[in-house]
Structures are given as C-alpha cells and as structure tokens.
User: Fold Putative sporulation protein YyaC from Clostridium pasteurianum BC1.
Amino acid sequence: MINKVIIDSMESNSVFKVRDILSKEILSVIKERPIILLCIGTDRSTGDSLGPLVGDKLNFLIRDHIFIYGNLECPIHAKNLCDTVNKIKSTYKNPYIIAVDACLGNIQNVGKIIIENKPVIPGAAMNKKLPPIGDLSITGIVNIAGALEFMVLQNTRLYVVMHLADIISSGIYHSIIKTIGGKKNIISNNRGLV
Assistant:
C-alpha cells in the first residue's frame, strides 16, 4: 500500500506512473470488493470541474466490479455527496472507493497529482463541512491556495484542469486494463453510468 505519491502531470511518463500506482492498489482488492470511482466536483466552476471531467472521460470504462459516479451530466457535489455515498454503501458490499477531486496548493505544485491511501476531504477549500470520502484519493492541484478560494476556483485555467483530467483518466483506464483486462458485462442506468 502506498502512503502518498506526488506526480508531475507534465512529465512524459506521468500516465504510466498513475497506472502503475493504481494497478498495485486495485490488484489487492479487485477479487473481494467492487471498485467505485467517485468523481467529485461541479461543472459550474472551472477549477472544481476536474472530477466530473474525469468521470465523463471514463464513462465507457464501466464493467464487472467497476462503477463510476459523477460526470458532467450528473456531477457529485456538496449538495448530493452524502446521499450518493449512502447509496453506494447500501448498494455494494464493502465497496473500495477511489475519490477523484480537485484541490488547491502551492504555486510550484499546480499541475501535480497526489495519490494517497486516505480519504479526500471534499469542499475543504470552500470551508464546507463534508465527511472524508474514499479508501484512496486522487487529487489534482488546479490552482494556488490562499485567500478567496472561491474566486481562485472560478478563475482557474481550463487548460490546467483538462490536462490533469486527461492524465488522471488515462492512468485510471490503463490501470483497469492492466489489472482486470478488457470489457466484460456492462451495467448502467439510463444515463450510461451506475
């Protein structure tokens, strides 16, 4: 199990670093637990749209034991997060939740991806009181932390968010292919996601 890994998304091998780290984590749980990708954020704020963008890019990845919650059409945000987590826990037996979210950090860390064996604390930049979520967290640093986080998130460059979403979604995709293999039975609801 990893503790904390920081990956520079601008490195040419960043997708493969994400893939290899996630593959090790997924391999140890896939036989016993369903894997839930919980992509947190909202498309109403550029800086906070990382999670829904990753969910959108991975909606084709749903297969046996892999389920995705959160995309651009149906984002998982502060108002529906607790209900969604309760639904996940009542639907799946002992789910392994991988939470994907945006975060703010130091200027030299913008564009970096953090993978940790601990929950993500959604809404922390906005001082929202939400419970920690996930067994594993993948966060992308989209902008600098400091004063007026709401304005910082609103004024985040879309390029940074899209680049992080591309690297994270590609890394997740390749880790699933590496550990589980190709497409099997697709389970979906009327929106194409479970």
Summary: Helices lie at 14-27, 50-57, 81-91, 149-154, 158-179. The beta strands are 4-8, 35-39, 66-69, 96-105, 112-116, 136-144. Residues 185-194 have pLDDT under 50 and may be disordered. The CA atoms of residues 126 and 149 lie 6 Å apart.
